[in-house]
Specification:
By secondary structure, the protein is mainly alpha-helical. It contains 6 helices and 2 strands, in the order ααβααβαα. The chain has one domain. A two-stranded antiparallel sheet has the order 1-2. Helix 3 packs antiparallel against helix 4. It starts with 6 loop residues before the first helix and ends with a helix.
């Protein structure tokens, strides 16, 4: 499918379930981020036409959004890598209203959804490791005593 390579089409196909690379959590994340980008007033607003191939937003908005969403749950090294990927999306504003440039919303969403998946994968691995370490008898079930020990260890004092 040639259209699958178009970021907007790829995202839409994932959000409605045609492809299996996006799920309901991704759809909620997408809606939350795109809504926040539209609400954010940093930079000069760009009027996107419904018939356009790409929708754009000011780079400053994207940078602010990325930092507000990922700064506290991403290592400094991963944040630097993420921002470099986003910087590569930056193009000059043809109307010269946003001096720092503009970014395709769809391409941006693909990058931060990928980053979100990476973070969730790390969390899933961590929780699995904690569960396995707590399952003292190895029966793939946390008995009350095993859970109690886990709870006592992680409970803040």
């Amino acid at each position: 499918m040639v259209y699958k390579k178009v970021p907007r089409v790829h995202l839409f196909m994932g959000l409605i379930g045609i492809t299996k690379d996006l799920d309901e959590d991704d759809a909620n994340f997408y809606i939350r981020i795109v809504g926040a980008l539209n609400y954010n007033k940093i930079g000069i607003n760009i009027v996107n036409n419904e018939g356009s191939d790409e929708f754009f937003t000011p780079y400053l908005r994207v940078a602010d959004m990325t930092k507000s969403v990922f700064y506290h749950n991403t290592s400094r090294d991963h944040m630097t890598i993420l921002m470099k990927k986003i910087d590569k999306l930056k193009v000059a504003d043809p109307k010269k209203l946003n001096a720092q440039g503009i970014v395709s919303i769809d391409k941006y969403m693909l990058i931060i959804l990928e980053h979100q998946h990476m973070l969730l994968g790390k969390i899933r691995d961590y929780i699995s490791d904690v569960f396995n370490a707590s399952d003292l008898d190895g029966n793939k079930t946390l008995e009350f005593f095993e859970f109690y020990i886990l709870f006592k260890i992680i409970e803040p004092k």
